[in-house]
Design a protein that fits this description.
single chain; about 280 residues; alpha/beta; Rossmann fold; 2 domains; eight-stranded mixed beta sheet; four-stranded antiparallel beta sheet; about 20% strand
């Protein structure tokens, strides 16, 4: 493990050892925002770290599968990440909107489900709710099959986030949806899919015996749960947190903590140096 950071837990050390010992039996999964892309005020400008596509491409033909599992629409993550047409990333899989969308770089076709039944009602009621609460400056992002409310640009984002949580949870419940909190964002979406289920599906698809998942936010907790379950069933796992001063919800659950997207890219480069060349 020369040059690689040492995980702080026995399970993490076993997971890293398994990854190094048999990389072609490993699935590498990543969140997008805050993990491969820096968090910015405008969600539409959240481009991936400039070195992320190349770092992923170097690893892609040495492992079973590389996947991005994000709350964003899949095609949007591909565009902001600059992942299309990158040599070496032909087998990359992008699961968007917490796993309900799939974008495969071989086919370059996004598979998008129908919007949930209650979403139109949420779209019509949400602006009025924000206005009544005195929060008209909260930014509404329509994702097609979900709606997100961003408070990052507001004068007191943390206070707005706390104030909005209960009313948006009630709005979601009235319309048969669920509320997913993130980094200064609250998303109303269909029930029944999360990053954990998405990651479990990828593990079945790839047949991998080792999984590394890298995330940074509350929305990644379900993926962390899936890795814990996979380890309990006899597989190997490595949980990595792309930490920040703004969000540390995953730090205590992680085997390894790196410094945001820059730290993730550095980890990928070091990992590539440690793996056998194809």
């Amino acid at each position: 493990m020369t040059g690689l950071p040492i995980p702080s837990t026995p399970d993490g050390r076993e997971g890293l050892a398994a990854l190094l010992g048999d990389p072609r039996d490993a699935l590498l999964g990543f969140d997008f925002d805050g993990t491969l892309a820096p968090i910015v005020d405008d969600p539409a400008a959240a481009h991936a770290h400039p070195d992320a596509p190349a770092a992923l491409a170097v690893l892609a033909d040495r492992v079973a599968l590389i996947a991005i599992v994000t709350g964003r629409p899949a095609s949007q993550a591909v565009a902001l990440g600059g992942f299309a047409d990158v040599p070496g990333l032909e087998r990359l899989v992008v699961l968007g909107q917490y796993g309900v969308e799939r974008w495969d770089l071989n086919s370059k076709v996004a598979i998008v489900p129908e919007p949930p039944a209650g979403l139109d009602a949420v779209r019509s009621q949400l602006p009025r709710l924000l206005d009544v609460m005195g929060l008209p400056d909260a930014h509404i992002e329509d994702k097609g099959i979900a709606v997100a409310v961003h408070v990052r640009r507001m004068d007191d984002p943390a206070a707005a986030f706390r104030e909005l949580h209960a009313p948006l949870a009630a709005l979601a419940m009235r319309n048969g949806l669920s509320l997913e909190p993130g980094r200064l964002v609250l998303e109303l979406r269909a029930e029944g899919m999360d990053k954990g289920q998405a990651l479990r599906g990828l593990l079945r698809e790839s047949g991998a015996r080792t999984v590394m998942f890298v995330g940074d936010d509350l929305g990644d907790e379900a993926a962390f749960d899936a890795v814990d379950e996979f380890r309990a069933e006899g597989g190997f796992g490595l949980l990595v947190c792309a930490g920040s001063i703004e969000q540390n919800a995953l730090v205590e659950r992680s085997d390894l903590v790196v410094d945001g997207p820059t730290g993730v890219v550095a980890l990928l480069r070091t990992l590539a140096d440690a793996l056998p060349k194809p």
